[in-house]
Write a structure and sequence with these properties.
9-stranded mixed sheet, about 250 residues, 2 domains, alpha+beta, Alpha-Beta Plaits
Protein backbone atom coordinates (compact mmCIF):
# COMPACT_ATOMS: atom_id res chain seq x y z
CA UNK A 1 0.00 0.00 0.00
CA UNK A 2 1.13 3.52 -0.69
CA UNK A 3 0.87 6.27 1.92
CA UNK A 4 1.25 10.03 1.81
CA UNK A 5 2.35 11.89 4.92
CA UNK A 6 2.05 15.63 5.45
CA UNK A 7 4.80 17.13 7.58
CA UNK A 8 6.02 20.48 8.88
CA UNK A 9 9.43 21.27 10.26
CA UNK A 10 11.78 23.96 11.40
CA UNK A 11 14.94 23.40 9.40
CA UNK A 12 17.41 25.28 11.59
CA UNK A 13 19.08 22.20 13.04
CA UNK A 14 19.06 20.06 9.90
CA UNK A 15 21.23 19.58 6.82
CA UNK A 16 18.18 19.72 4.56
CA UNK A 17 15.50 17.19 3.76
CA UNK A 18 17.27 14.46 1.84
CA UNK A 19 18.90 11.57 3.67
CA UNK A 20 22.67 11.91 4.00
CA UNK A 21 25.33 9.82 5.67
CA UNK A 22 26.70 11.33 8.87
CA UNK A 23 24.25 14.26 8.70
CA UNK A 24 21.05 15.14 10.52
CA UNK A 25 18.20 15.50 8.00
CA UNK A 26 14.40 15.54 8.04
CA UNK A 27 14.18 12.32 6.04
CA UNK A 28 16.60 10.53 8.35
CA UNK A 29 14.62 11.51 11.46
CA UNK A 30 11.24 10.42 10.08
CA UNK A 31 12.55 7.13 8.69
CA UNK A 32 14.26 6.40 12.01
CA UNK A 33 11.08 7.14 14.00
CA UNK A 34 9.00 4.98 11.66
CA UNK A 35 11.35 2.02 12.14
CA UNK A 36 11.08 2.30 15.92
CA UNK A 37 7.27 2.11 15.72
CA UNK A 38 6.76 -0.40 12.90
CA UNK A 39 10.07 -2.30 13.16
CA UNK A 40 10.46 -2.01 9.40
CA UNK A 41 12.57 0.19 7.15
CA UNK A 42 10.96 2.57 4.68
CA UNK A 43 12.40 5.00 2.15
CA UNK A 44 10.61 8.33 1.85
CA UNK A 45 10.13 10.18 -1.44
CA UNK A 46 9.68 13.92 -0.99
CA UNK A 47 7.49 16.33 -2.92
CA UNK A 48 10.08 19.11 -2.58
CA UNK A 49 13.62 18.98 -1.29
CA UNK A 50 14.55 21.81 1.04
CA UNK A 51 18.12 22.92 1.70
CA UNK A 52 19.90 23.09 5.04
CA UNK A 53 18.23 25.56 7.38
CA UNK A 54 15.07 25.97 5.27
CA UNK A 55 11.68 25.47 6.94
CA UNK A 56 8.43 23.88 5.75
CA UNK A 57 4.90 24.68 6.87
CA UNK A 58 3.67 21.96 4.53
CA UNK A 59 5.60 19.27 2.73
CA UNK A 60 4.58 15.81 1.59
CA UNK A 61 6.32 12.47 1.36
CA UNK A 62 5.16 9.10 0.14
CA UNK A 63 6.27 5.58 0.93
CA UNK A 64 5.15 1.99 0.41
CA UNK A 65 4.31 -0.29 3.33
CA UNK A 66 2.66 -3.70 3.26
CA UNK A 67 0.59 -3.27 6.44
CA UNK A 68 -2.31 -1.03 7.36
CA UNK A 69 -1.22 1.85 9.59
CA UNK A 70 -3.63 2.38 12.50
CA UNK A 71 -5.03 5.58 13.99
CA UNK A 72 -2.48 5.62 16.80
CA UNK A 73 0.42 6.14 14.39
CA UNK A 74 0.33 9.97 14.42
CA UNK A 75 0.54 10.15 18.19
CA UNK A 76 3.27 7.52 18.32
CA UNK A 77 5.55 8.97 15.68
CA UNK A 78 5.18 12.54 16.95
CA UNK A 79 6.11 11.40 20.45
CA UNK A 80 9.39 10.07 19.05
CA UNK A 81 10.26 12.80 16.56
CA UNK A 82 12.25 15.87 17.69
CA UNK A 83 10.14 18.85 18.72
CA UNK A 84 10.99 20.72 15.51
CA UNK A 85 9.43 18.07 13.21
CA UNK A 86 5.75 17.09 13.14
CA UNK A 87 3.79 14.59 11.08
CA UNK A 88 0.44 16.33 10.57
CA UNK A 89 -1.44 13.65 8.66
CA UNK A 90 -1.05 10.24 7.04
CA UNK A 91 -3.39 8.75 4.46
CA UNK A 92 -3.59 5.81 2.10
CA UNK A 93 -3.53 6.70 -1.63
CA UNK A 94 -3.73 4.89 -4.95
CA UNK A 95 -0.70 2.76 -5.79
CA UNK A 96 0.64 5.04 -8.53
CA UNK A 97 0.24 8.33 -6.62
CA UNK A 98 3.51 10.27 -6.52
CA UNK A 99 3.96 13.20 -4.15
CA UNK A 100 6.58 14.86 -6.36
CA UNK A 101 5.36 14.25 -9.91
CA UNK A 102 1.65 14.69 -9.14
CA UNK A 103 2.13 18.11 -7.55
CA UNK A 104 0.85 21.01 -9.64
CA UNK A 105 2.79 23.74 -7.86
CA UNK A 106 4.85 24.71 -4.83
CA UNK A 107 4.52 27.91 -2.86
CA UNK A 108 7.40 29.58 -1.02
CA UNK A 109 7.70 32.68 1.12
CA UNK A 110 10.89 34.47 2.10
CA UNK A 111 10.73 36.64 5.24
CA UNK A 112 12.89 39.70 5.89
CA UNK A 113 12.86 41.93 8.97
CA UNK A 114 14.52 45.34 9.05
CA UNK A 115 14.46 46.18 12.76
CA UNK A 116 16.22 44.02 15.31
CA UNK A 117 13.76 41.50 16.74
CA UNK A 118 14.91 38.52 18.86
CA UNK A 119 11.63 36.70 18.20
CA UNK A 120 12.30 36.52 14.46
CA UNK A 121 15.80 35.11 14.78
CA UNK A 122 16.19 31.86 12.79
CA UNK A 123 12.78 32.46 11.15
CA UNK A 124 13.58 35.51 8.97
CA UNK A 125 16.54 37.38 7.50
CA UNK A 126 17.69 40.46 9.39
CA UNK A 127 18.28 43.04 6.66
CA UNK A 128 18.57 46.59 8.08
CA UNK A 129 18.00 48.37 4.75
CA UNK A 130 14.91 49.83 3.11
CA UNK A 131 14.43 48.66 -0.47
CA UNK A 132 11.69 50.37 -2.47
CA UNK A 133 8.60 48.11 -2.35
CA UNK A 134 7.31 49.38 -5.71
CA UNK A 135 10.61 48.57 -7.42
CA UNK A 136 10.68 45.15 -5.77
CA UNK A 137 7.26 44.38 -7.23
CA UNK A 138 8.25 45.67 -10.66
CA UNK A 139 11.14 43.19 -10.70
CA UNK A 140 8.95 40.42 -9.26
CA UNK A 141 6.47 40.94 -12.10
CA UNK A 142 9.24 40.71 -14.70
CA UNK A 143 10.13 37.12 -13.81
CA UNK A 144 6.60 35.95 -14.66
CA UNK A 145 7.40 36.78 -18.29
CA UNK A 146 10.27 34.27 -18.40
CA UNK A 147 10.51 30.49 -18.19
CA UNK A 148 14.27 29.76 -18.30
CA UNK A 149 15.81 30.33 -14.86
CA UNK A 150 19.33 29.00 -15.47
CA UNK A 151 20.72 32.21 -13.96
CA UNK A 152 19.02 31.42 -10.64
CA UNK A 153 20.12 27.82 -10.23
CA UNK A 154 23.20 26.73 -8.32
CA UNK A 155 25.87 25.01 -10.40
CA UNK A 156 25.89 21.62 -8.67
CA UNK A 157 22.51 20.42 -9.82
CA UNK A 158 21.45 17.30 -11.71
CA UNK A 159 18.33 18.67 -13.40
CA UNK A 160 17.91 18.27 -17.14
CA UNK A 161 15.83 21.40 -17.59
CA UNK A 162 15.89 24.91 -16.15
CA UNK A 163 12.37 25.68 -17.36
CA UNK A 164 9.86 26.76 -14.69
CA UNK A 165 6.39 28.30 -14.92
CA UNK A 166 5.97 31.09 -12.39
CA UNK A 167 2.32 31.50 -11.34
CA UNK A 168 2.74 34.14 -8.65
CA UNK A 169 5.57 36.54 -7.79
CA UNK A 170 5.05 39.49 -5.46
CA UNK A 171 6.39 41.36 -2.44
CA UNK A 172 4.26 42.57 0.45
CA UNK A 173 4.69 44.13 3.87
CA UNK A 174 3.08 42.33 6.80
CA UNK A 175 3.75 43.90 10.18
CA UNK A 176 7.48 43.93 10.77
CA UNK A 177 8.24 41.60 7.85
CA UNK A 178 8.87 42.21 4.18
CA UNK A 179 7.82 39.02 2.39
CA UNK A 180 8.52 37.66 -1.06
CA UNK A 181 5.77 35.26 -2.19
CA UNK A 182 6.37 32.99 -5.17
CA UNK A 183 4.50 30.02 -6.61
CA UNK A 184 5.65 27.86 -9.53
CA UNK A 185 5.22 24.40 -10.95
CA UNK A 186 8.81 23.63 -9.89
CA UNK A 187 11.88 25.32 -8.45
CA UNK A 188 15.58 24.87 -9.12
CA UNK A 189 18.25 24.41 -6.47
CA UNK A 190 18.77 27.73 -4.69
CA UNK A 191 16.30 29.48 -7.00
CA UNK A 192 14.08 31.30 -4.50
CA UNK A 193 17.00 32.66 -2.49
CA UNK A 194 18.73 33.77 -5.71
CA UNK A 195 15.58 35.58 -6.84
CA UNK A 196 15.28 37.30 -3.46
CA UNK A 197 18.93 38.38 -3.37
CA UNK A 198 18.90 39.68 -6.94
CA UNK A 199 15.54 41.46 -6.73
CA UNK A 200 16.74 43.21 -3.57
CA UNK A 201 19.44 44.78 -5.73
CA UNK A 202 16.68 46.34 -7.83
CA UNK A 203 14.86 47.54 -4.72
CA UNK A 204 18.02 49.27 -3.50
CA UNK A 205 18.62 50.75 -6.98
CA UNK A 206 21.97 49.00 -7.29
CA UNK A 207 20.81 47.58 -10.62
CA UNK A 208 18.08 48.74 -12.99
CA UNK A 209 15.09 46.78 -14.19
CA UNK A 210 16.76 46.53 -17.58
CA UNK A 211 19.90 45.07 -15.97
CA UNK A 212 17.74 42.61 -14.05
CA UNK A 213 16.24 41.39 -17.33
CA UNK A 214 19.73 40.96 -18.77
CA UNK A 215 20.67 38.78 -15.77
CA UNK A 216 17.72 36.49 -16.48
CA UNK A 217 18.47 36.38 -20.20
CA UNK A 218 22.18 35.68 -19.65
CA UNK A 219 21.37 32.16 -18.40
CA UNK A 220 24.49 32.37 -16.28
CA UNK A 221 24.37 31.87 -12.50
CA UNK A 222 27.46 34.05 -12.10
CA UNK A 223 25.29 37.03 -13.01
CA UNK A 224 22.77 36.56 -10.17
CA UNK A 225 23.15 37.06 -6.43
CA UNK A 226 22.74 34.16 -4.00
CA UNK A 227 23.70 35.87 -0.76
CA UNK A 228 20.64 35.59 1.44
CA UNK A 229 20.57 33.01 4.28
CA UNK A 230 18.25 29.97 4.48
CA UNK A 231 16.45 30.89 7.70
CA UNK A 232 14.08 33.31 5.95
CA UNK A 233 12.78 30.69 3.52
CA UNK A 234 9.61 28.64 4.07
CA UNK A 235 7.99 26.04 1.86
CA UNK A 236 4.43 27.13 2.56
CA UNK A 237 2.35 24.68 0.53
CA UNK A 238 2.41 21.97 -2.09
CA UNK A 239 -0.67 22.00 -4.34
CA UNK A 240 -2.21 18.92 -5.96
CA UNK A 241 -5.11 18.51 -8.42
CA UNK A 242 -8.52 18.16 -6.81
CA UNK A 243 -9.36 14.58 -5.78
CA UNK A 244 -5.84 13.40 -6.64
CA UNK A 245 -5.59 11.51 -3.35
CA UNK A 246 -8.75 9.45 -3.85
CA UNK A 247 -8.23 5.74 -4.37
Amino acid sequence: MRYFIEVAYRGTNYSGFQAQKNANTIQNEIEKAFKIIQRKDIVLTGSSRTDAGVHAIQNFFHFDFEKKIDSKFLYSINSILPEDIVVKEIFNVKADAHCRFDAESREYKYYIYQKKNPFLKDKAYYYPYKPDLEKLNEAAAVIKKYTDFTSFSKKNTQVRSFICSIHKSEWKQEGDCLIYCVTANRFLRGMVRALVATILQVGLEKITLSEFRKIIEAKDCKQAKFGVPPEGLFLVAVHYPKNSFKK
